[in-house]
Design goal:
Rossmann fold, 7-stranded parallel β-sheet, binds NADP nicotinamide-adenine-dinucleotide phosphate
Amino acid sequence: MQKRAVVTGASSGIGREFAIQLAARGYRVTGVARREERLQELLNALPGEGHGYLVADLSEPACVTAVADSLAAEHCNLLVNNAGYSCFESFHESALESQDDMLSVNCRAVMALAHAFLRQSRQGDALINVSSIVAFLPTPAQPMYCASKAFIASLSECLWAEHRKRGVYVMGLCPGITATEFILTATGGESDGTTLPASMIQTSSEVVGEAMRALEKRGKATIITGRTNRLMMLMPRLLSRHRLLKTLSVIGDPEKAM
Ligand SMILES: NC(=O)c1ccc[n+]([C@@H]2O[C@H](COP(=O)([O-])OP(=O)(O)OC[C@H]3O[C@@H](n4cnc5c(N)ncnc54)[C@H](OP(=O)(O)O)[C@@H]3O)[C@@H](O)[C@H]2O)c1
């Protein structure tokens, strides 16, 4: 029987690539996002049949419930909790509502959909939660984003340990800088991140390719994509937390980098 995958944030970047690579592997994909025209375009581009989409704003509890209900209504073998965003802004100067919105999309929706998915999951199923290397390397100008990705990384590790006994694989996927619309959104359209060193940037295809290989192996709880990003993971091992924060507050400042 054909497997079913639900991918949030499927209208662009990493989520869109997940939808394409999963459809190519025979999954029936349901994409979730706000921009319907992008989802419709994706649907036309997917190989195979039986794909669909749900238009949902995951900052809205009612929309999250609708997506959770769709997971419960028809067995889902794989959930990719991918939708998320950042905003490079001063925490205290920005409106509380905008920080709260990010918390809802990046954490609350991830938690609620993971919960709905795992309740209906069976042996052999898998949950991929898209975190980031900033879960381990907190950078300035995006405190809520870094905290939200640390939340996802930690949640994923605990769920991995809890569900492996049932044969359900949980992965916390941690990409570094990836060429998507992410930086354009985070900078309010001011930068697309093309001035960043090319050696630091992966394509969505590379990130999702690594996630797919890890999904086949069903081994580790946390997958850091890209050799440069894995090298950067030496920093938290070699430096004290204090030194790490001081270093990242200089080299990780997005305003200086772009
Ligand atoms: N690109 C990077 O450098 C990078 C690095 C590490 C981790 N990540 C993570 O990778 C994931 C995907 O990001 P990306 O790089 O592919 O960026 P992207 O191209 O901007 O895609 C973000 C996706 O999230 C969806 N989304 C945002 N807000 C939403 C909302 N309120 N409701 C429903 N969907 C929403 C967007 O769809 P709509 O706008 O159509 O709703 C879009 O499909 C995110 O969780 C991000 O944190 C990205």
